[in-house]
Amino acid sequence: MKKVKVGLVQMSCTKDKQENLDKAIAKVREAAAKGAQIVCLQELFTSLYFCDVEDYDNFDLAEAIPGPSTDALQVVAKELGVVIIASLFEKRAEGLYHNTTAVLDADGSYLGKYRKMHIPDDPAFYEKFYFTPGDLGYKVFETKFAKIGILICWDQWYPEASRITALMGADIMFYPTAIGWATDQDEETNQDQYNAWQTIQRSHSVANGVPVVSVNRVGFEQDGAMKFWGGSFATNAQGKLLYLASHDNEETGVVELDLDQSDFMRKHWPFLRDRRIDSYQPITKRYIDGD
Asked: Where is the CN hydrolase domain (predicted)?
């Protein structure tokens, strides 16, 4: 049977980039000590979530990929023999920036990167100010332990993105995320939002017959106006929750995924082979209204 242990690092961040990197490395070590073979860090883990404001000074947080953070993490990946999924603010060129995730294999090699495709522009999530939409397309990475697909936060709402990633052969889909509640909201709204977030990602697991691992940050930011809701989770190939983190605490969880379940689920719930691909051309239209 093909099984792999994945680590989910849910943590709070500070203004100190080096402190956050050091903390993440310590958490990777903790996950590896618990048996993790692939460790996923949350979206933009080296900083506070800076996209709550449009501030040109925040571009100073960006770095090249490969660059200083991936260099440090490659050493750790090789030492521990683990795959590391690292979401970083990429400076591609002068004035050109992306929200990017790097993948480092268990031998310390740099396998490549995925640039976030869907970029939000909501109150307190002004990402279009900072990030150019990804131009690498959807990606899968052949690591030592599994072929993994990476999507980032806002990508999580789009079944098209998860479907394409699954069709490229992903054994597991990983979602580094940063999402939270405005602290002036009522509890019912909070739960409705979290449930929608979890449900859409679990549905990607069901529709595609692959495990999903979603890793979110936690803690209060934006001078207390935002509570990042944690709630990181992992599912099996049928969308069943195998691990669920709290809304309040830092956690380093490790869960074993049975990758052979994908074949079983796809045979018994044959959503992939029953797809009517000959009928899907209209999906590329912005809206189907005759224009």
From this structure: 4-259
